[in-house]
Amino acid sequence: MPAQVLAVLKVFPESDQISLEELRKKLEAVLPEGVSINKVEEEPIAFGLKALKVYAVLPPNISGGTESVEEAFKKVEGVSEVEVELVHSLL
Fold this sequence. Notes:
Layout: E1 5-13, H1 20-29, E2 36-46, E3 49-58, H2 67-74, E4 79-89
Antiparallel strand pairs: 1-3, 1-4, 2-3
């Protein structure tokens, strides 16, 4: 059986005025089917701005790799940019 995939995505808010907790809840609500979030960390960027580092577990048979997760996150209100930092197979 193919292994699950761990993807680490950095989600940048539009401004430092956006609640990261509310943004995290919105991201969880738009996850594609079969994708789950393992953990979320806040990462300082600059001048008080923080990004969310999202550790997502994807099923082995997901079509298009991380693309569906990236596109779902980009559509969330308050998200400026989504960047994939790491994709790794879980044994």
